Amino acid sequence: MKASKGTLYNHLKIEKKWQKEWDAAKTYQTEKGTKKKKMYVLDMFPYPSGAGLHVGHPRGYIGSDVYARMKRMEGFNVLHPMGFDSFGLPAEQYAIQTKKHPGPFTDKLVAQYKKQLEIIGFSYDWDREVSTHRPEYYKWTQWIFLKLYDAWYDSKKNKARTIAELISIFEKSGNKSVAAVTDANTPLFSAKEWQAFSAMEQQELLMRYRLAYEGFAEVNWCEELGTVLANDEIVDSPTGPVSERGGFPVIKKAMRQWFMRITAYADRLAADLEPLDWPSNIKEIQKNWIGKSEGSEIPFDIQAESDDKESIASVSVFTTRADTLFGVTYMVIAPEHALVQEWQNAISNWKEVSAYIQKVAQKDDTERMSTDKEKTGVQLKGLVAINPANGEAVPVWIADYVLASYGTGAVMAVPAHDERDYAFARKYGLPIREVVEPLFKKTGDKDGVKESLPFKKRHAAVAVIKHWKDDTYLCLKWKKTDWRGFVIGGIETGESAADAAAREIVEETGYTSAEMVKEVSGTVHAQFYHAVKEENRWAHFHPVVFQLKNGDQVETAESEKEIHDIVWVSKNEMETYLSWVGDMQLIWKRAFDEGASSQEGILVHSGDFDGLDSAAARAAVTKLVGGKAVTKYKMRDAIFARQRYWGEPIPLQHAANGLIVAMKEKQLPLVLPKVASYAPSGNGESPLAGVKSWVKEGYETNTMPGWAGSSWYFLRYMDPTNSKAFASEKAVDYWRDVDMYVGGAEHATGHLLYSRFWHKFLYDMGFVPTKEPFKALRNQGMIGGADGRKMSKRWGNIVNPDEVVKLYGADSLRLFEMFLGPFDSHLPWSTEGIIGSRRFIERVWRLAQKLDEKASDKSVQKSIHKTIKKVTEDIAQFAFNTSVSALMICLNEMEKGKVSTKDFALFLQLLAPFAPHIADELWNASGQKGSIHRSSWPKHNPKLLIEDEVTIGVQVNGKVRAEITVAADATKESLEAAALALPRIQEFLSGLTVRKIIVVPGRVINIVAA
RNA sequence: GCCCGAGUGGUGGAAUGGUAGACACGGAGGACUUAAAAUUCUCUGCCCUCACCGGCGUGUGGGUUCGAGUCCCACCUCGGGCACCA
After folding, report:
1. What is the pTM of this model?
2. Nearest nt (C1') to A960 (CA)?
């Protein structure tokens, strides 16, 4: 320990020294041609923003760096790279403002950003750095695009295949037998017809199959800004939607766009989430985003209401609730639905209808989709739809609450069991018909108890009775079982629910002034064990609401009084009071707010299906009416174009004859041309449209969106300089996939989904060996300002890491960011808090100068080995805060006793991932050779962890009353005896009888006494 | 509205169903110092108490259990996602 003896800890000197040393020795260089096992630890690469870093940014990088460093010491060949997602808006804005090319500016930002990262002491292999804006990189982004353009999705083989294969199928047998993911309404053709099509016609048909395809999309167009806006760049105003910047009007406009057919992969994207080691909320978000829903398509005949009942079309509806088909009281079609136009002649109120269609068309998406907007619609008079289940003719409406883009663009309306249909039906006076009774199956059903009458025959009225004066309601509480609920009585033949309830009120409670307020529509179906009558019962409950006029009461039969008490419960307390009586609770709810009940249950009023449960009914009903089971997804195809300059050019050429020519691999990269102006062209096209030479060649003027370059960058790190492929086969075979991916949760539905999509495509085409790109994922939480607000210029609460490093050192910063709290929690920065980390580091430094050359105390040894175990386990689980805490505890212990140089070195190794500079300094000062970061990670000695004595708590009736220190291997009997012998325990037990003693070895003894 | 997740001291947080509050910040008091900083020692959930003893305590109300921050039910608050997806 000679070198640092007596010297003060100077973080500036030490950190600089070691960063230089590591750089020179290539300490963190990924090994090539090694037999070691691979470990790919990846950070989401940043956009090199000009604003620079604040202390929140490096948090994720520090976490992954700690992890990577431990893995490296554990003997893995670690790939831990960093790069830059360098196409993007800020550089584009800069170019527009300064009229300078964004390239050099971006290079400068990259350099700046890199410098800021370097002083924190990450173990990146900078030889593998990539930037998405460099032509050597985006050549391969373009190459992947071309592969996607040259592919279609075979839904039978469930994988992507090349367009050449598709063409050969078309030539042989047309498209009738091709099961593919394609545009809606793709026409069918035979082989002969295919061969007769013109090149242009063939191109258009193929476009319907390609995974990268051209189509039209409605976009938010802002004339004044001359640009397309994203949904979140638009705000509502009294005059309609306007741009957030400037407040200029925004309209919907159909524009030519490139798309990615990500929907082809919807099912696999959802299914393959399951085995991934990802945070469950991210999986959940992706699952919801994909929005898989299984249901049925059911054909409805549309008839003109004229004398001959002429059938004019068949319209399929998509529903997840085929079990409610008998409850259909009308049908709704999206206003944009093409068929509506075709029916013009059959619709008697066409004027009204077409006016409505126009009105809806003018609304933009944000308005149409806005939350509590009232639904509107118009009936298509002169038409009816025939319910295939019962042949009933129901009215047909168009309404803006039905989306043309989902399902079939038409729905069967079941107001009794769908909230939206309910609201609409109420507004327009359409009938509501209940066909499913919510079912409650209560726990406590007993096997072997005789069943009562079949469910159809048992009907019971339930009376919800309001007090004559107070705002309370009558409940009965059964004395024998504590069951609670309302007054219930069987309905006799020929009796109405109201009559039965009224009769029962007098019988059970004696109150004579009950007056019916309303009969609640919709019955509740319960299957329960009747604890009083001791049998399993099924019942239809018919809720009826009553009001007592006064407190007049007649004497009830003794038998009734014995069974239950009357309890008055207020409205507020009712839900709690009934918390475990599910059916009564539902009756209570329905008594006050009527509405649609979307719960599943048992079918009623459904012909032969009565008595079936929803799940069984769905299959049976679908089958009966000739419908088919189908799966739909919420996710839409992704737009793959931006009308901007600063992005990857799309490598396609439009020939003069309108045909699209894909560029050849050897022509790539297609490099961005020089332009006179970076500003938007003003007609919705990118600045590239203003470049004569570019347009003359017929190049695409759209550029790729931001997510193109980031969807595959992790593959490039495997072999970053390869000019013949995005990465060599050998490299891809070795590195395969990312073992640990660290980044923000905000990318859940963007980058993380798009990357998976591209990766699966590359897998289908045989370019990568794994189905998924990221085996494990961890999200870092954000660090907010000390004031609890988001760190931003606006609040003046930004803390700059450069300054923190200068003041306290990179090691202190790293340690503190890991110690602050759980890795994935959002936490406020604390200027005082970092002092604790700095103190810890200084104490380590001081301890290094007081080491004993001989042996450590036994307690110190034990403590170190305990820490080895804890830190190793915790880093593996990204529990960095508790690892740091364990290191602190260990230091506290070491300071209390003698520590040998050898044992201290173990501690330094544990510290190394968190505080790499000081660890290497002290490691080398103690005479060790080479960098600590290339040493092998210590293993704990289990023998040292065995305790011979333990202190455990002694409880009396669950409360700790004393402590007792005993031999670790003490028998149960001796523990019991020792515990009972304690004077304190004796005190608590006086006057009580010991009933039971529970002994949890090494933990606690609980004496149960009464 | 629907779907997730979280609520623990003054603060950040810790705790395989088994002694709640580890570790750290902050605070109070003492030592060292002419003094301050640094360092170091003691105390620090709340209530009662000089102190001991004791009581209370993990958002609220119930439940399961010998024992619940942890499991179950309902509610409240906050954060995130979706937003007429039939």
Report:
1. 0.89
2. B19
